[in-house]
Structures are given as C-alpha cells and as structure tokens.
Amino acid sequence: MSRSNSEKDDRKRIKEKENPEAPAPNSGKPTNFIRAIIEEDLKTGKYDGRVHTRFPPEPNGYLHIGHAKSICLNYGLARDYNGKFNLRFDDTNPIKESEEYVNSIIEDVRWLGADWENRLLFASNYFDKFYEYAVDLVKKGKAYVCDLPPEKIRETRGTLTEPGVDSPYRNRSVEENLDLLDRMRRGEFPDGSKTLRAKIDMASPNVNMRDPVMYRIVHASHHNTGDKWCIYPMYDWAHGLEDSIENITHSICTLEFEDHRPLYDWFLDELEVYHPQQIEFARLNLSYTIMSKRKLLKLVQDGYVDGWDDPRMPTISGLRRRGYTPVAIRNFCDRIGVAKRESIVDVAMLEHAIREDLNKRATRFMAVLNPLKVVITNYPEDQDELLDAINNPEDETAGTRKVPFTRVLYVERNDFREEAPKKWYRLAPGREVRLRYAYYITCQEAIKDENGEIVELRCTYDPATRGGDSPDGRKVRGTLHWVSAKHAFDAEVRLYDRLFNVPDPDGHKEKGFTEFINPDSLQILKNCKLEPSLAAAKTGDLIQFERQGYFCVDSKYSTLEHPVFNRTVTLRDSWAKIEQKMKNK
Ligand code: ATP
Ligand code: MG
Q1: DSSP secondary structure string, 420-471?
Q2: Which end of the chain has less neighbouring CB within 10 Å, N or C?
Q3: Shortest-distance atom of ligand 1 to CA 257
C-alpha cells in the first residue's frame, strides 16, 4: 500500500543525509512532527521550557531494533533540546519479567549511546504511590472491587459495536471497596478472584474506558519488590502515573496507544496530578523481520536460534554480536524518520547503514574461506617476503601492514574454473591474474586427486610485477585475495543470511512465521585460512575480508585456540538482485 512510497521517501532521506549541504538537525526547521510540537511548546513556555523524555521498556525480553528507534528518538530529543532522558523499567508484571532482561536492557541502551545520567528508574519503586492513588480513586467513588473472574470481565466488556454490561459489583460502597482492596493487598484472596476496576463508563465508544482493571491479584515474587505485593498494577493504570511521577513532558509512544490516551487522561485528571503530553508515532516494521518480543521469545525457546543474541536476531544484542555498530544503528534510526503512518522499512536500509559505517572504518584483511592450494613453481622454496598492504583505502591514517608471501598459497576455490568463459577474469588454465599487493600469476596446471577433484593449482609468477603492477604495461582484469599457507591460521567463519525468506513472515494467515525460516540463514565454514595479522583481532574490531564482506570476532564462541568470525554483511546487496529477478519472472 504505502510501502513503495515510504521506500522512496527512505531513499530520498538517505540521499539528503549523504549530501553535506542538507540541513543538519536543529538548523532551524524541525525535522519531524514531534520536534515541531516540542519547538512550539518551548516557544509557548508549556512545561517552563523543560524537555524530559523517557524510554520505558518492560523487562520481559531483550530489546530489538524497534526499541532502538524509540531510544534514539527519545534520547535524541532530550539531547538536542537540553533536556533529560530517563531509562525507566515498566516492571509491573512479575510473571514475565526477570533480572536477566533488566541487565540486558541496561547494557543495550548504554551501548547505543543513550545517557540516562543518574535516572535509572523502576516503576516498581512507585508501587506504594500507585496504591495510594488507587485508594484516592476508591474514596472518590471512582474505583471499585469487582469479583467477576477474568473471563467474565472480558465477556461483559462488549464489542466495538455493542456497549458493555455493568458489573454487579459496580455499586459497592466506598467503605466496602476500601476494606476489600486492603484485604486484596494483604493476600486474603486467591489469584484471579478479585480485581480493582476504574468506574468510568461501560457504554463508552472507547472500549478502554469500560471500567478497565487497575489491579489484579497475583501471588508471585517480583524481581525488585520480592514478596511485598500480591496485587500488581495493570499497564494502563501504571503507565500514565509513571510519566506523571517522573515529570515527563513529552510521553512518546507507538500508535496503538492512541486509544488509551483518554484513559490515561482520565486517571490523571481524576487524581488531579501533573499531566505529561502523550504523542504517538508509527512503530518500526522491517521487512524479512519479526519484531514482537513474544515471537522472538518463541524463536529462542523452540531452539530456532542460538539465544536472544543469535546474530540473525533483530535484537540489539544479536546485531551487536553480528558486528553492527551503534553508529550504524543510530544513523538508520535517524534516516527512517518518525511518522504517524504505519509502513514497512526495507531491511536493506539497515544493511546499507552498516555497510556505510564499516566501509569508512573497517580494517581490510585477506581471508580465504574455501581454500584451494596454489604452488608458485618458479618462486624459491626457501624465500619469504613481506609485502605492504593498505589497511583502509577510505582512511589514510589507518596506515599499512605487512603480509607474508611464500611459494605455497591459498586462494578461494571459486576463483578458479577449469573451463572458463571468455569474460572470466579470475584463474583458469593459462589465465593471468593479480594477487592483491603481490604479483601477477599465471595458472599452468590444475592437479586432481583420484576422485577428479582439484586439489592444487600450479602457477608461475612474474617477479617484475611485485606490488601488483607490470612494468611493460600489460593489464590483467582480475585481482584475487590470497594467504600464505605457511603463515595463515585456521578459523571458523559463520556466514549469516536473513532469518526469514519472505518479506512479511508475520503476514500469512494460514501459516505461522516459523514456517518461513530461511534454511540457509547460517552456514558454518570450518577450515578457513586467515592472514596472520587477523590473529590479533578481538571482539569489537571492525573488519573487512577483502572481496567477501564485513566480519567480526564472535563474542560468544571465539577463543584463542578456536577463532570464530561472523559475517556482519556482504559487501553488496545480493538480495536486491534476487528480488529483481523474482519480479522479472
Ligand atoms: P513488542 O511489541 O515488540 O513486544 P513492546 O512494545 O511490548 O514490544 P516495551 O518494552 O513495552 O515493548 O517497549 C518499550 C518502548 O519501546 C515502548 O515505548 C514502545 O512504544 C517502544 N517500541 C516497541 N516496539 C517498537 C517498534 N517496533 N518501533 C518503535 N518503538 C517501539
Ligand atoms: Mg509494550
């Protein structure tokens, strides 16, 4: 529907960003509608010129790239308007939440570069306050204890076209409600036997206003408050209060909460407390990607992936392990912009962002993933030489390094063809190629084993071409990467591809998203040969394997004895071609 348009817009935004003459954020014109609102508020002095935003995750899973959008947005506003930014856990549901999730979220938000200073906050620290507020509402006759079980509450809620039905407990006296609420809190009643409900309007056209549940009974330990509570606040009751208590000015959330805003307003108005302004924006959806935490949890629990930080996961920790950088993710979030309209962003935009950052910053190395032995027959057996290689052609300050060259080398198996078409510029019998930073070599012979498989190439080199140019001006079209057999070390290399093989894995009614898992999303190569300088590589280093892609040291499995490298992204977008082919069919 609006997809192609938004893609066009996205491309346009990429162009604008790459154009140094494009206006920087804050150079006059607000760059999105939320900034426009804030600038207007600053002008009119609403909130006394304060800007205070927050990121309010529920610690029931790891953060994903959609959360990154919200973090960059909220933190970016606070930063750019000299405001404050809170990291606040919306930890109101003890059953699904855990310390592990809390810790991973803290790590991920910090890694993305958002700074909450000393404001790491927990909604659970406001439980007493929430309870006092609830008592206030009961005293005002605006909340009541209801004995209907959860299914009955749901049934009597009505539908979009039919009004709900009043609970038979709706008209309990204030005294009775206060007594029952107190006993709920003390643990006198079993789970699910009672709730506290706001007394609003069972016939409201907005279903959220039909006497929503504020508290439910759950006898469960909480990661922060332990066993102090056995009633827990519902999201809709707690969320607006959290923002109010923290004096948030602009309470930014995704579009699905638009219909909840009247309820938050109702609570805050009835309590006569500070009132932030809620602003909704469209959540990030990415092609070829699942974004719901519940579904990501299923991928983890059912073993489709190797944990929340599997490099194929769209989680921040997965992207980090995959080799994504905070810079790339922040640039991506800036570019996709903020809108009021739902759309699907092409995952190629995310891949573009990481390529762009790594192209500037990654150090180039040579690594042979599918090695084929090459013997340079006219190169002296006892000779070793060190050749100069450029670390990063995009960055002069990155300098050069030495790469050892010897008589026995490895090249990439698919850089050789026994029978090559005319336009094949790589190795084939009789063909000459350049070895990067080294010499021109010519293939003389391919040696096969008893099964007919090629096990070795016999080549000759031209000593006059040292460094990669020939003094007689003769040209070769192909330049191959290589490593010296004697100096190379073995490593495992993991090639990742998209986890799903359709653009909308979640958009099929008859089939669940797990049916669209790409069976080739992980390929493990065991005997790759890497140039010796890579032995010093560590987690977090930005690496390009020349002609192959960008790589990183795997933070989970790599050891000194058994190095493991992950492919972050290929050098070019091969899926764009595949999709084009599919369209042309
Ligand atoms: P999910 O729907 O993936 O399970 P959630 O919304 O339940 O996520 P929360 O922990 O409640 O997860 O989210 C914290 C914040 O992140 C919320 O303010 C929410 O609006 C925002 N957020 C979540 N998903 C996205 C997304 N895809 N794009 C932008 N913001 C998002
Ligand atoms: Mg949520």
Answers
A1: --TT--SB-TT-EEEETTS-EEEEEEEEE-TTS-EEEEEEEEEGGGTTS--T
A2: C
A3: 20
**Total H helices, total E strands in the chain:** 14, 25
Ligand 1 nearest-atom number relative to CA 71: 16
Query: In the structure encoding, which two tokens stand for residue 386, read together?
Result: 């060190």
Q: Ligand 1: which of 53, 54, 64, 67 to mutate, judged by most atoms within 8 Å of the beta carbon?
A: 67
The pLDDT tens digits of the residues spanning 132-171 come to 999 999 999 999 999 999 999 999 999 999 999 999 999 9
Report how far ligand 2's centroid is from the alpha carbon of 165 (Å). Answer: 28
Output the average pLDDT for the chain. 93
403 DSSP β-pair partners: 387
Determine how many CB atoms are found less than 10 A away from the CB of residue 301: 8
The whole-angstrom separation of Cα 241 and Cα 131 is 11
Model confidence pLDDT, tens digit, residues 371-414: 999 999 999 999 999 999 999 999 999 999 999 999 999 999 99
Q: CA-based angle 442:444:450, to the nearest 5?
A: 135
Give the chain's length.
585
Q: State yes or no: is 322 an active-site residue.
A: no
293 is catalytic: yes
Q: What is the mean pLDDT of residues 196-219?
A: 98
Closest ligand 1 atom to the C-alpha of 58?
10
Q: Within 13 Å of residue 560, how many CA atoms lie on the same side as its CB?
A: 1
Q: Residues lining ligand 1, CB < 6 A?
A: 56-58, 66-67, 69-70, 253-254, 283-284, 291-294
pLDDT above 50 (res 2) = no
How confident is the model over 7-63, as pLDDT tens digits?
444 334 333 333 333 344 445 667 899 999 999 999 999 999 999 999 999 999 999
In order of 366, 402, 440, 489, the CA distances from 532 in angstroms are: 9, 10, 22, 6
Q: Catalytic one among 79, 152, 283, 373?
A: 283
Distance CA(210)–CA(163), nearest Å, equals: 9
Of the residues 84, 197, 216, 293, which is catalytic?
293
The predicted model scores a pTM of 0.92
Residue of 92, 96, 122, 283 to mutate, ligand 1, most atoms within 8 A of C-beta: 283
CA distance 540 to 269: 49
Scanning the structure block, which residue is given the tokens 């309007």? 201
Whole-angstrom distance, CA of residue 545 vs CA of residue 530: 9
- Reading the block at residue 20, the tokens are 């140094």
- Whether the pLDDT of residue 67 is over 50: the answer is yes
Per the listing, tokens 């009751």 go with 237
Instruction: Assess whether 58 carries a catalytic annotation.
Output: yes
Rounded to an integer, what distance in angstroms lies between the CA atom of residue 554 and that of residue 566? 6
The ligand 1 atom nearest the CA atom of 285? 27
Which run of H or E residues covers position 358? helix 347-361
On whether the CB atoms of residues 453 and 373 are closer than 8 A, the answer is no
Provide the pLDDT for residue 3. 38
Predicted local distance difference test score (pLDDT) of residue 376:
98
Domains of the chain by start residue, with CATH: 5-118+236-284 (3.40.50.620), 128-231 (3.90.800.10), 293-363+492-584 (2.40.240.10), 367-481 (2.40.240.10)
